[in-house]
Amino acid sequence: MVVSILFIYVVYRLFSYRRQFPPGPNPLPVIGNVHQIPTLRPEETYQSWQKKYGDIIYVRIFGSSMLILNTFQAAQELLEERGALYSDRPRFVLFNELMGWHNASTHVQYGPRFRQHRRFIHQTFNEQAARSLRPIQEKETSTLMTGLRESPEQYSQHIRRFAAATIIKVTYGKDVTSVDDPFVLLAERAGSLTVQSGTPAATLVDFFPILKYLPEWAPMAGFKRNARVVKQAVDDMMNVPFERVKEQMKAGTAPNCLTSRLLESFGESITFGDEEDIKGVAGSMYAAAEDTTTCVLLSFILAMVLHPQSFENAQEEMDRVIQDDKLPTLEDRRRLPYLECVLKEVIRWNPPVPLGIPHRLMHDDMYDGYHIPKGATILANIYAMLQDCSDPKTFRPERYLELDKTLDPQKVVFGFGRRRCPGRYFADTGIWLVVASLVASTNITKARDEQGREIIPNVEFDTGFVRHPKSFPCSITPRSSETRNLIDK
Predict the structure, then answer these.
(1) With 60 as the cut, is the pLDDT of residue 203 above it?
(2) Phi and psi, residue 81, nearest 5°
(3) Cross-strand bridge partners of residue 234
(4) What is the pTM of this model?
(5) Is the alpha carbon torsion for 165, 243, 119, 347 positive or negative?
C-alpha cells in the first residue's frame, strides 16, 4: 500500500514538473492540499496566501484541481475574456446528485439548457424589463418602512420579509405580508440547512466522488444522511410555490408572474423536462435574491451603527436634495452621489458572496505561463479583490469620490462572464430603494443597555455561501413626526 502511494506521488510530481502549474501551498501525497483548505472564512485565508504565492493560486484536493483568483485583472482575463472556456459549473456531487439541485439554473452545466435558462431569466430581469418591476419594489419598501416604525426591534425580520416578498411576487405572483409566510419559511429552512451541509467547493465528496457509494451507516457517510434532510427542504422550496401556480392556472386565477408566463409560453406541448427547467429557474432566483438582498441590507444597518458620521453625511446630502414633502425615488438617484458611495462601501466592506459561485474550466488553458488543467474549479475571490485598496479595513465611502483606482464593487459583486447574476438590475434597484428610504426617514444608532450606555456591536459574519452579519443590537427610530407622516402617506 505504501509503495503504491509513493509511486502515485512520484508520477504526480514528474507530471507537475513537465506542466508548470501556478504556485500554491505544497500538497501532500494523494490528499493534496485538503488539510490546508479552511472551513471558516476561506476567502480571508486565500487572500493571505496571495502575499506568498501571488495573484493566482493552485491547489489540489485528491485528484481535483482548484484555481483561486485573487485579483480583478485575473478574473477579468479568464472569466470574462475567455468566458467560452470558463462558463461551466463544477459537478457538485453532494448538491447535484444527492440533493437534486441539478435543475437549478445556477448549477446547470454550460450548454443549450444553460442558455435556455438564461433566456427565461433575461425576459423578466433584463435592464429594461426590470423597470416594470419597480412598483412591486416600491410597495414592499413602503411596507418595510411601516414595519420598522411599528416594531423596530424586529428589524432583521422586516428586512427578510422585504427581500422575500419582492422576489416571491415576481416569480410566483404571491403577496407576502409576514415573515411567517409559508414560502418565506420554506426558503429559510432550505437555506440554513444548505449552509450547514457545507460549501460545495470544500465538501470532501465533491473532490473524492467515490465516497458517494458509501452506505449511509458507514463512518464517513454522514454527508449522505444530512443530504436527504436537505434534499427534502430544497424540494419543498422548489415544488410548493411552483405547484400553487400550476393549480391557479388550471382554475384560471393565476397571477402574471415569471412562472405562469413561462408555463404559458410552452402551452400544451410542455414536457416534464420543460417544467423542471421552469421550476429550477424560479426556485434558484427565489433563493438567491432573498438571501443576498437580506445580507446587503443588514450589512448597511450594521455599518451605519458603527460609522455614524457616514450616516449623518448621507442624511445631510438627502436633506439638500430631497424636498420635505416626499421620500426619495429612483429618479433622485443620480443626484445623491454620496449615498451611492456609502452603498458601494458597504458592499466592499462585506461582499455578500465573497467567493462567488465556482466556475469550471472546459478545456486545458494557459495563463501567464502556467498550465491550468481541464476540469479545474475556478474561484473568484471577490473579497480579496475588494480589499485591494488603500486602508482596506477602514469604512470610508469618500474613497469613491477621490481620483484613485479603487475598484467599483458593482463590477465584481454580481460575478463574472456568462455566469454573471442575471437579476443584478432588480437586486440593485430594491437595495437602493430601501437604503435611500432609511437614510431619509430614520435615525440608525447604537442601542443602549439598561444603564443607558451605548452597546457597540461585534463585527462578526457567518461563514458559507453568503457572508451574513451575525445578529447585532441597534436602534431605528423615525427622524421626525414629518417623516413618520410621509411613511404613513
Answers:
(1) no
(2) -70, -30
(3) none
(4) 0.87
(5) positive
Q: Which residues pair with 32 in a beta bridge?
A: 28, 61
Could you give phi then psi for residue 227, rounded to 5 degrees? -65, -30
Calculate the alpha carbon distances from 120 to 106, 285, 402 in Å.
Answer: 13, 11, 40
Alpha helices by DSSP H, listed for 197-331, are 204-207, 222-251, 258-266, 272-306, 308-321
- The pLDDT value recorded for residue 137 is 95
Give the range of the structural domain holding residue 231, as residue numbers without chain letter: 2-488
Q: How many domains does the chain have?
A: 1
Is 257 marked as binding a ligand? Answer: no
Q: Which amino acid is at 38?
A: P
Q: Which residues contact 203 (CB under 8 A, 6 or more apart)?
A: 92, 93, 94, 197, 223
Report the alpha-carbon distance of residue 471 to residue 214 in Å, rounded. Answer: 38
Distance CA 488, CA 478 (A): 12
CA angle 198, 203, 205 (to 5 degrees): 135
CA 358 → CA 196, 214, 420, 477, distances in Å? 18, 26, 11, 41
Cell 425576459, located at residue: 123
What the block records as the C-alpha cell of 379 is 474561484
The 10s digit of each residue's pLDDT in 448-472 is 999 989 999 999 998 778 899 999 9
Cell numbers standing for residue 409: 464593487
Q: Which residues contact 277 (CB under 8 A, 6 or more apart)?
A: 103, 113, 116, 117, 120
Measured CA to CA, the distance from residue 108 to residue 249 in angstroms comes to 27
Residue of 282, 206, 275 lying closest to 238 (CA atoms): 282
| CATH number of the structural domain spanning residue 429 | 1.10.630.10
- Residue 4 CB partners (closer than 8 Å, separation 6+): none
